[in-house]
Automatic annotation (TrEMBL):
It comes from the Bacteria. This is Polysaccharide biosynthesis protein. Signal peptide: none annotated. It is found in: Cell membrane. The chain crosses the membrane at residues 49-66, 87-109, 121-145, 166-188, 260-277, 298-317, 329-356, 368-387, 393-412. It holds the Pfam family Polysacc_synt_3.
């Protein structure tokens, strides 16, 4: 008898270093630790503390988006592997970027505490300023391993860092560290990850400040930077509005409902994009038609699976919040029902972006982000005036749907 199997899964289970199994394992373990940490600490501390931490992390996200070099994606996508000199230039650029971001965040900490109703929480922002520095000094060998599809090694590093983040954060929370426990755990996890990129990955770049020899990455990476700047508005604009107008308490409810929906839906697709981007890139270099067939199969699976999950999560939303987070968070249930739709669309976008970058069309993703930004600029003021924070969430849905539709249109047109 002939064996029956899905066309994109081998008949024999594969566990080599480039197998999708390691990406799935990484997703389950990493997101599991993140879920345990945030849900446990959220139950212990309540919405206001989570909101204060979210504002501190918001500063990091804004600064990193504004200064995204796109070098990581360029190293993965470029036809030729980087030389030692090129890796050294990449490290120098990213290290300097991380240090400058950290200094900027620390310098703006007093202003942020006054603008976002964070009296007495300036230490959270100072602690968050360490994160971009740690990420910047990590070895760019991580990008080379990604290019080589060394998913087993990547999973080991990511899982170790996530376990450290979760364990340290929970210990600090139970010891009475309050909101600081979230950031202390993040710093511990990023420190371990940076160390592992230097000790467990190769080739190691030469240490020394050099910035020449990577101009050929610029044409690709500039679109990544442009996309990051636009995505800054798309991903952080709503949080800034909620934090500025309503303060940490409301931001905590908004952020937790968004985070829970993200963990249950979008994170799986984002993690799979770590596998899909280099995999699509490799198949596209070898056989364009075969790569297109693979993309269509992945999109079909994603659409069907996400539809089922969204329906189930909306049905069990209230008991889920009551059991996991407690009665203090029940006000976030309605937001959660909207965010599961948002995150499902975001999951599809993650697959679309992986394909667009793999085939050398990152500008389409950037154009889609611009369309989404325009839609938000039109809909958010009206929706906020009429429905408040719920209106902001629905406006995000309309924007995400517009971006995904544009990407699909361009992909079909180029087929």
């Amino acid at each position: 008898m002939r064996s029956v199997r899905l066309p994109f899964i081998p008949a024999r289970a594969r566990f080599e270093q480039d197998a999708a199994f390691w990406v799935l394992l990484q997703q389950v373990v990493v997101r599991g630790f993140v879920a345990v940490k945030f849900l446990a600490i959220g139950r212990i501390l309540g919405p206001e503390a989570i909101g204060a931490v979210s504002i501190a992390l918001l500063a990091v996200a804004i600064a990193e988006s504004l200064s995204d070099t796109g070098l990581a994606q360029a190293v993965v996508q470029h036809r030729e592997a980087p030389t030692q000199g090129e890796l050294g230039a990449v490290w120098s650029t990213l290290a300097m970027r991380g240090v400058l971001i950290g200094i900027l965040i620390a310098a703006l900490a007093p202003l942020m505490t006054s603008q976002f109703h964070m009296s007495g929480s300036i230490g959270l922002i100072f602690l968050a300023a360490i994160l971009p520095i740690l990420r910047g000094i990590a070895s760019p060998a991580y990008f080379v391993v990604t290019r080589q599809r060394g998913f087993q090694k990547l999973a080991g590093v990511e899982c170790s860092a996530s376990f450290t983040d979760c364990a340290v954060g929970l210990i600090c929370a139970l010891s009475g560290a309050g909101a600081y426990s979230v950031l202390i755990g993040l710093v511990a996890g990023e420190t371990l990850k940076t160390v592992l990129t230097w000790t467990r990955m190769s080739p190691r770049p030469p240490i020394g400040f050099r910035f020449k020899g990577i101009s050929h990455y610029v044409n690709f990476s500039r679109w990544i930077w442009a996309g990051s700047v636009v995505n800054l508005l798309l991903n952080q604009f709503d949080k800034v509005v909620v934090a500025k107008l309503l303060g940490p308490m409301q931001l905590g409810a908004y952020q937790m409902s968004s985070k829970l929906a993200q963990m249950l839906l979008a994170d799986a697709a984002i993690a799979m994009s770590q596998y899909l981007f280099p995999t699509f890139s490799e198949h596209h270099r070898r056989d364009t038609q075969a790569a297109r067939k693979m993309f269509r199969r992945w999109m079909t699976v994603a659409v069907v699976g996400l539809t089922v999950v969204v329906i189930v999560l909306r049905l069990i939303a209230e008991p889920l919040f009551s059991i996991v987070l407690g009665s203090a968070w029940l006000s976030a249930v309605q937001l959660f029902k909207i965010f599961v739709i948002n995150m499902a669309i975001g999951a599809l976008i993650a697959v679309l972006v992986s394909w667009l970058r793999a085939v050398g069309m990152p500008k389409v993703a950037t154009h889609a982000s611009i369309i989404q930004a325009v839609v938000l600029c039109v809909t958010v003021p009206i929706a906020t005036h009429m429905w408040g924070v719920t209106g902001i969430a629905w406006a995000m849905t309309v924007g995400l749907g517009s971006a995904a539709s544009w990407m699909l249109f361009c992909i079909v047109r180029e087929a």
